[in-house]
Amino acid sequence: MPINVEFLHPVLALIVWTLVMWLWMYATRIPAMQKAQINPDDARHPGTYGDKLPANVRSVADNYNHLHEQPTVFYALMFFAALTGGGDHFATLLAWIYVGLRVLHSFVQILSPKVTLRFLVFALASITLIVLAGKEVLRITTG
User: Fold this and answer.
1) Which of left, alpha, beta for 85 (phi over 0: left; psi -120 to 50: alpha)?
2) Cα–Cα dist 43/101, whole Å
3) Residue 48 DSSP SS3
4) How is residue 6 annotated by DSSP?
5) pLDDT digits (tens, 9 = 90+) for 56-71
6) Distance of CA 111 to the CA centre of its chain
7) Using an 8 Å Cβ cutoff, are 80 and 136 in contact?
8) Transmembrane segments in this chain: where (predicted)?
9) Domain count, the chain
10) Which range marks the domain in which residue 113 is found?
């Protein structure tokens, strides 16, 4: 069965966004470490210097780490669906909504102190992922 390549475009978009966040993280972290006179060799273990870096710098790094958590389920689900004949228009729409919400989550986490807003965006992304997973379960179990 042929793979719907368009269905996988949201996967590529989220990968690219994660790499953008990697660049943003180091563009803020390296100057902040230099300003705080933190020796990189003294920062081998996560969290050893966190209190010496500004909150906005830590937020970028936290978000980069978050993009390696729940999105891994998204990646697995997308490839499962693509390899088993899924990936219709509705699933593709859900995937783009999920990616858009994850990008929005990044901006909210980094630029806003509003934890409730960040949680709302995270919850909406999670619900979108649950709907996408549920759709795939129904597709597989009902043939």
Assistant:
1) left
2) 32
3) coil
4) G
5) 999 999 999 999 999 9
6) 16
7) yes
8) 7-27, 73-99, 119-138
9) 1
10) 5-27+55-142
